[in-house]
Amino acid sequence: MRRICLALFFCSVMAVSVASAQQPAGINVLHVQGNVYMLVGATGNIAVQVSKDGVLMVDTGTTQMSDQVLAALKEIAKPITNKPLQFIINTHFHPDHTGGNAKARAFGTTVTGGNVAGDIQDAREGAAIYSHENVLKRMSAPSGAQAPTPSGGWPTDTYFGDRQEIFFNDEAVQLFHPKSAHTDGDSIVFFRRSDVVLTGDIFTTTNYPIIDLQNGGSINGIVDALNFILDLTIPAAKQEGGTMVIPGHGRLCDEADVVEYRDMVTIIRDRIQDMVKKGMTLEQVKAAKPTRDYDPLYGSTSGFWTTDMFVEAAYKSLSAKK
Ligand SMILES: [Zn+2]
Ligand SMILES: [Zn+2]
User: Fold this and answer.
1) Residue from 3, 57, 16 nearest 207 by CA
2) Could you write out the DSSP letters of every residue in 207-268?
3) Which of 24, 96, 185, 310: disulfide with 132, CB 3.0–4.6 Å?
4) Which one of the ligands is nearest to 11 CA?
């Protein structure tokens, strides 16, 4: 139950923070570079890759926005290809990133395997949904509890280990799985030719990192994953542009933005780690305000992910027995 509450809570409150950044009730489409577009307005950011082979999308936004998302996707694809949506990738299981899965899957068409030729015309099951296996575990609740997500939205192709690849539209699309970051089922998606990275909620521009402890997240894992993202990104000559980074929530970024965020998270992590080592209680850590200098940019005292909640999650994550 707690898991469902937490997920719904991310979903509903994230909507507030993101909606304020663009026109209400619509999807804004931004051509990032190469074959990749960014869709903003379905709470979690969405990436769409379109070329001659058809359409691949990463994350599907909330259930409520799925019709608008698919309408925007059709508009993007129309002048480029008449081939269908074939692949959906989920960066993690939260419903602000997977709520549109069922409709998007039904809208698309499965073609056998990412690297395999040949449509199965009579097996029109819809688009394939790729994710790390822990996304399916979280969605299907195999422990016997009621499944939090209807089965039509579950991943159809999961991977285990730390990477997976799909070759589509003459482009290698790589999925990298950090063991434990925002959740325990995150994928960082890298479009190699287009030079675009989609981070899921490991990186957001709108708040302190969300550590979903109940679902396997950890602050050390987030720091490691941010460093990994920086291994993938290369700036252009004047330190701006180059590899573009689509965060889970917020505006389009480049490497410099991720560096700044990584530094912030690392500094706060180190401060809280020192306090934990000194044996300070959670209340003492909160009173010491380890985030104070960053609060104007990322802090909040109300809403979906307050500074207090971040400090508490970081404290618990760093206090946990290994
Ligand atoms: Zn999110
Ligand atoms: Zn999330």
Assistant:
1) 16
2) SSPP--GGGT--HHHHHHHHHHHHHH----TTSSSSSEEE-SSSS-EEHHHHHHHHHHHHHH
3) 185
4) 1
pTM above 0.90, yes or no: no
At 156, list the tokens. 């159809």
Cα 15 to ligand 1 centroid, rounded to whole Å? 9
Cα–Cα distance, 18 to 24 (Å, whole number): 10
Q: Which residues contact 224 (CB under 8 A, 6 or more apart)?
A: 178, 181
Question: Could you tell me the CA-to-CA distances from 55 to 37, 76, 171 in Å, in that order?
Answer: 11, 10, 12
Distance separating alpha carbons of residues 164 and 278, to the nearest angstrom? 41
DSSP 128-177: EEEEEHHHHHHHH-TTSSPPSS-GGGS-SEEE-SSEEEEEETTEEEEEE-
Distance separating alpha carbons of residues 44 and 65, to the nearest angstrom: 11
Alpha carbon distance 219, 212 (integer Å): 9
| 211 C-alpha to ligand 2 centroid (Å) | 9
SS3 for 70-116 is HHHHHHHHCCCCCCCEEEEECCCCCHHHHCCHHHHHHHCCCECCCCC
Cα 82 to ligand 2 centre (Å): 32
Task: Give ion ligand 1 contacts, CB < 5 A.
Answer: 44, 96, 201, 248
Indicate the DSSP class of residue 298.
Answer: H
Answer yes or no: are the C-beta atoms of 304 and 16 closer than 8 Å: yes
